[in-house]
Design the sequence.
């Protein structure tokens, strides 16, 4: 059974051992943990203590631990290592992870470290790809075999050459021109007759991607077809790399966080307890953008100050008209954004989505409008006020539906992430239209 | 290379074939597609056409296709099957998927179908677990072996008994009391010497969960430890089931969608183009809840109608004070919610989070307050108005930080999903406090 407190207890124990100078024992303790847990302990340790433990650990253990951290964390942990030590550690890491770490270093430092690595030919090509593409998350393929091999020969070959290979999910079968012609899952290999050739048991309809495909698309393909790894190939079907399921789970989590933070108008790399200066920067930027659009809404209200001075009750209902429009619009835009992201909504379904959301907006608008009009009537005893607010409500809910569909579609088509910027434009529309409808009608009918 | 248009083209082709009465060819086409693609085609087909194709397909093909759909979609697709046909299809499905489908049927119908199934002993036990727990997403384990077997024997055994087993990632080693004592990955099996026993190569530190663990926790464990499957065991370590990586990717996507929709105040099962009546219900409910809280804000404004009638410019700045407070609060609550969900923030870090967010709120509040006060001064030429709005702004940003941390923590501690309900409470706080601070100060200083 898993022990949820394992990290906390280990951290305490490591600190205690280090305090008494028993550094080797502290390192020994880390080595016995699962690398994922050891990574958390190491990351939580104070930098000077971390440096002490790190120098008691062998490169392979450090490599295993680093692979469990994300890029920023890796860089922080290896700070105390010299370039030659770092090169030694990187040689023991999976090539994709080593490339990720190198990508985070300053260019000169990365070049120096790479120079000292033995496995640089495996890692260097990976540095060329943007980090959020298939190329950026792939690792260098090994276990490539020829089609005429028998199952028994393939197993013997694996036993001889790939003892320390972690990501062993599929064998890749290449032709004499090094082009990918088929894959054999470990499952198929184990279940096949030992005398069959790979050619007989391999899957020829290989689902693959080119290196420039977005990582989110890669994740979706892997999930859709229930694969454990996806080959990355060039135009001539040469095998460039493989993306494995564990990388993809990180991608799914990362992309979901990005979408969630986008809706709340923060950048996707925001994190709790990030340095204050950075937090102010990421959040204040969006607050200021929002402020700009909020002044637009204010300007609309300002046009009607004369009306409000005479019919101050309008001010009481202002938050309701704009607020409900904003809420309805965010419901619409969120469902559109998520459905586009999950591939449940296609770009050519714009009209269908628009018709559907407008109808929904009309129905919800009438329902909400009736309630608000009723409350206005009972509370303020003014039937005309009820009419004004009810009609403004319906109008604004229709605008919310329109903007909630059009804005994400437009941003998507422009190649921008709709999750990030839709909210700003949307509330601008619902605030401006809401106040305009409500105060305009009020000026006309209540003065 | 993957062909993104494959579903659209296949759908068109199937429709054309059915129109000309070539039903068998339409079914043949579906059978040649990847089940994930065939599932999409079948789901997109009109119900009467779907029924026609379905009756040309064998049960195993239908089972493979159904496994690619989610529960609601499965139920829709099998509508035209009789209970005995459905039982035949369910017998061919993975037990966890069969249980999911049965769980969606009406109780009497599910009982009748189960009665007619041959594999009911494998499926029936799975029905007992809530669907969002480890028990609810696990499948019945097979490939259970004894520790004294050699690698060669184990492989022969697998070849004989598990030819049609899809989820073959690990072998589970049981003792004579059927308790789980170790696991052997296929990778370890392939790389081991054929004469070694399972006992020699098995992993004894098995990470496992009990069936009542939340599915999100299961997903996190699998992702954290880079596992392909996780055994589910009872208190005595009897193997009850296994949760596989493909199920977990669906869980990650589902939970992210739920969180995203929660933030936009919709239920997690909302979907684009769901039946209109259902969409009205899911969205209108939250709009009405919001409306209730919006009236609270209105009531506060209403208290100050006398002030507003005399200083109508206050109405102009109302949207800004409340809006910025709301935005800042949603930034805070979203980062707290997501960090709690990802395990990056622990419940005992409440004070740390509170101190951090209050400090951030103060800094951002001062920055935003200064800008707004400056604009008010320049635009309306009223320094006192600038002071009122600036101070109200800072006060409301502090309230936003306070509410943005406390509300998710409180909901989390009460065992509720903070993503779902935080927004409502939060905007109530920022609206009410924003208007109270701003109009209260205005009444005091501007009248």
Sequence:
């Amino acid at each position: 059974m898993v022990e949820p407190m394992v990290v906390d207890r280990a951290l305490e124990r490591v600190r205690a051992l280090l305090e008494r100078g028993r550094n080797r024992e502290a390192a020994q303790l880390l080595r016995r943990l699962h690398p994922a847990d050891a990574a958390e302990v190491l990351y939580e340790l104070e930098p000077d203590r971390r440096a002490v433990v790190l120098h008691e650990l062998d490169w392979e253990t450090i490599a295993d631990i680093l692979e469990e951290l994300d890029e920023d964390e890796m860089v922080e942990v290896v700070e105390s290592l010299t370039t030659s030590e770092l090169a030694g550690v990187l040689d023991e890491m999976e090539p994709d992870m080593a490339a990720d770490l190198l990508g985070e270093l300053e260019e000169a430092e990365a070049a120096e470290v790479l120079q000292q690595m033995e496995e640089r030919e495996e890692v260097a090509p990976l540095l060329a790809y943007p980090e959020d593409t298939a190329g950026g998350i792939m690792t260098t393929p090994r276990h490539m075999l020829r089609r005429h091999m028998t199952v028994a020969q393939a197993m013997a070959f694996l036993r001889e050459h790939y003892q320390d290979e972690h990501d062993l999910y599929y064998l890749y079968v290449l032709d004499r021109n090094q082009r990918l012609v088929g894959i054999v899952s470990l499952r198929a290999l184990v279940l096949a007759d030992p005398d069959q050739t790979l050619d007989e048991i391999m899957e020829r309809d290989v689902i693959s991607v080119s290196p420039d495909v977005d990582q989110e698309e890669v994740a979706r393909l892997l999930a859709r077809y229930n694969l454990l790894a996806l080959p990355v190939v060039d135009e001539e079907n040469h095998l460039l790399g493989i993306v494995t399921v564990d990388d993809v789970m990180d991608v799914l989590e990362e992309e979901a966080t990005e979408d969630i933070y986008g809706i709340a108008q923060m950048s996707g790399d925001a994190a709790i307890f990030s340095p204050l200066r950075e937090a102010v920067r990421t959040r204040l930027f969006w607050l200021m953008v929002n402020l700009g659009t909020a002044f637009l809404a204010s300007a609309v209200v300002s046009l009607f100050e004369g009306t409000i001075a005479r019919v101050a009750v309008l001010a009481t209902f202002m938050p309701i008209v704009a607020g409900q429009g904003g809420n309805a619009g965010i419901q619409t835009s969120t469902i559109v954004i998520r459905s586009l992201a999950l591939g449940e909504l296609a770009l050519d379904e714009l009209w269908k989505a628009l018709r559907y959301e407008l109808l929904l907006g009309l129905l919800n608008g009438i329902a909400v409008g009736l309630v608000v009009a009723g409350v206005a009537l009972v509370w303020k005893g003014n039937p005309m006020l009820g009419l004004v607010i009810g009609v403004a409500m319906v109008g604004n809910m229709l605008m919310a539906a329109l903007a909630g569909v059009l804005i994400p579609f437009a941003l998507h088509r422009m190649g921008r992430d709709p999750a990030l910027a839709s909210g700003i434009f949307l509330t601008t529309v619902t605030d401006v239209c809401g106040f305009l409808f409500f105060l305009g009608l009020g000026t006309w009918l209540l003065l």
User: Anything to note?
Assistant: Chain B has three domains: 6-129, 144-259, 276-446.
